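Severity: low
Component: inverse-folding endpoint
Summary: output formatting inconsistent between runs
Steps to reproduce: submit the following structure tokens with default settings.
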């Protein structure tokens, strides 16, 4: 497989990993239930998520059919070339968002169609950096989201129609979801910078349509679907160990995007952070806040050699890896490392057999903090 094909499939896989294979029933605000009906809206939201999963899958498998340009292998690592590849991936997503923003629902009953002005949608799409509306529409059509183009009433140009006769409740769900996402934006909450990624947002924002709303409280169970299957047991083992020592869990997320979870375990009395993790679309990183090098190094020395190197190779997280002038130089197994003065360690690679050693380090550090 060529480097180009690998990169295209990686872009598709990264998008698809943000989509859950099955969408749990979202908690809908009473206003949405009254306006659209609970069952139709849930069915439409599931259809919207399935549409996105098919789009990512097909674009990754058949890039040329979606207008993704061929890039020579030697240029795949160039930023301009990567932008050329990502552009066609983003265009149909942007078009969906534009339809939700500029379109209106028409028709009686529980399954109205979504209608938008061609001129208005085209202008909005250009402002988002996607100039070719027909190409974006063709990409959506290849995964079953076909748009009809017809003259508007009273000779006012043309309009795009996402027909309920063909698409069921999906057009209605698209409009409802975009409206709620825009409510959050008007409430000046932190939202994805690029509007087209709204489809990766947590569907639980639909529990309220109030601009003063806040994200629902997150739990470990929200993050587990995004942790690699072979590492779920390791994470649960470490989490249970932290709970047994009385540490409190704090779950968070940087924005509305689904699949970017951050967890930290804090001493409830003093607020000291000891253990944390980041789970983001198929990878898991562990974070330990240990004592200064002089106190913790003897205990790190007792870990297996691969784990020692993984712990020590991390640069200081407090200063972003740029160096703060306070790193502590150490030499282990004949290699020199600059250990973080603040005791911040990140672990991206480990074996299940390493978990008891990590638990031992956490127990020792908990004793340091208590003392």
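Observed output (run 2 of 3):
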């Amino acid at each position: 497989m060529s480097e180009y094909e690998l990169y295209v499939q990686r872009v598709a896989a990264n998008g698809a990993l943000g989509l859950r294979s099955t969408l749990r029933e979202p908690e809908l605000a009473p206003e949405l239930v009254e306006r659209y009906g609970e069952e139709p809206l849930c069915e439409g939201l599931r259809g919207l998520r399935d549409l996105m999963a098919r789009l990512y899958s097909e674009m990754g498998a058949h890039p040329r059919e979606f207008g993704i340009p061929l890039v020579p292998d030697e240029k795949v690592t160039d930023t301009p070339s990567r932008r050329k590849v990502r552009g066609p991936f983003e265009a149909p997503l942007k078009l969906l968002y534009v339809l939700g923003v500029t379109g209106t629902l028409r028709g009686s009953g529980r399954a109205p169609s979504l209608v938008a002005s061609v001129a208005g949608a085209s202008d909005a799409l250009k402002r988002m950096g996607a100039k070719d509306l027909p190409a974006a529409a063709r990409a959506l059509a290849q995964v079953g989201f076909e748009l009809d183009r017809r003259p508007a009433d009273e000779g006012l140009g043309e309009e795009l129609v996402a027909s309920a006769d063909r698409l069921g409740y999906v057009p209605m769900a698209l409009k409802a979801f975009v409206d709620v996402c825009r409510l959050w934006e008007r409430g000046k909450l932190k939202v994805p910078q690029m509007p087209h990624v709204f489809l990766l947002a947590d569907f639980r924002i639909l529990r309220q349509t109030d601009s003063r709303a806040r994200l629902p409280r997150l739990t470990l169970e929200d993050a587990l679907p995004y942790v690699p299957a072979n590492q779920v047991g390791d994470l649960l083992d470490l989490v249970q160990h932290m709970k047994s020592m009385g540490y409190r869990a704090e779950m968070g997320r940087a924005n509305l995007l689904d699949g970017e979870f951050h967890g930290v375990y804090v001493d409830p009395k003093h607020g000291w952070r000891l253990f944390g993790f980041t789970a983001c679309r198929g990878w898991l990183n562990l974070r330990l806040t240990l004592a200064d090098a002089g106190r913790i190094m003897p205990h790190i020395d007792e870990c297996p050699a691969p784990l020692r190197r993984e712990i020590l190779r991390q640069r200081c997280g407090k200063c972003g890896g740029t160096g703060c002038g306070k790193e502590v130089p150490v030499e282990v197994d004949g290699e020199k490392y600059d250990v973080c003065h603040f005791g911040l360690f990140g672990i991206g690679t480990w074996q299940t057999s390493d978990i008891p050693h990590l638990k031992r380090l956490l127990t020792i550090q908990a004793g340091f903090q208590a003392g």
